[in-house]
Amino acid sequence: MGYRGGKLDSEIIEKIGVPSVLRDLRIPGTPEYYGGRNAGSHPPDGFVETGGFWVPDELVRHQEQVTYGQRQHPRGIGYHFGAVTRMRMVAQEHPEWAATSWTALGIWGVEYFVDDADTCVLSNGRASLAKSATAVTRHRNQSVHAATVVFTPDPYCRELMTVPPVMAFAMALRSLSAGQHRWNVPQGTGLSDEDLRAVQLIDAVSTTFGVDPQRWPDACHYLLSTRRLRRLVALCDQGAESPTETVMRLMAAQIQPGMVSQLVVLADGTVADPVHTKGALPGRIRNGQGRSRQGRVANGTAGRIVARLDLGHPELKLALQYDGAGHMTADRRDRDSKINAELANLGWHVVRITYGHLRDPNLFETTVRDAVSYCRRRMTR
Q: What span, in angstroms and rounded, lies between the C-alpha atoms of 291 and 137?
């Protein structure tokens, strides 16, 4: 029973190098590390003290985030520090432990789900679940885990060890199945809550690592149920850039097949599908009537990118764009309005979706069905 994720691990690690989260975040350090005279020194302005460490203020999560995560956590635990910051403190106290599961995914750069999950470590001794924010969830270092090479990717915290990306992903998916982590999900996708969370996780990991979801079952052989994982990856898409986009895609697929994630619309009216054609622009380009041709995306006006659509239907020229909180700023609204106008001039019908649509499956279905009907009517004019 051997580990089969090594090849994919190597590809991922070569691709991402040192994860940006490790380069960009300052580390929690001892008072001595930050110039304090001794362990009893008071932290200077810009730091908080916790467990003998001085932690830069920018690493403290907003209370709203902590409370929201606590409400969803299976054991009601709220975390004031993100996954990477917590593991950096743990590594300095227990350099013999390695990050695994959600914590390891955070180290390798996965943005979603990890900061509200337990601090997960691989260690000798009995497996146990964290009972507080300062405790860890321990996974036993045995069987296939023991044969897995650990990595030390952190340039600032050399003590930090982590399992490789494939192992981290497999352990996180197993913890979902075991009910050790969860988050709120809307209804209306046709999936159980557990399966929807799993698809959101696979989408997020696949997008972060640049991996075709279809590769996970073979890489995770012996770690996860291959049958279940193949069923799940059939619902996944590497083009989902957020968990809400995953939900929108799954809900839309029940109404209108053929929606393409991250479809690129160019100024000459052609479209490109760089995510699913295994290549960045220039790539395979199709016009709005569904005919295809090989085209080169030039630097001139014709090849200028007008928009990357969250979901787009090339034949119907229907675009679904998800508007999260980041779209509420004045600058973003101005940019969205300009994009909407240019898409409209190219014959696209743009429907902007908010979380309110996703929370109300009937509203979402009515909105999308009406949009599809409108696009079909205008095709017959």
A: 53
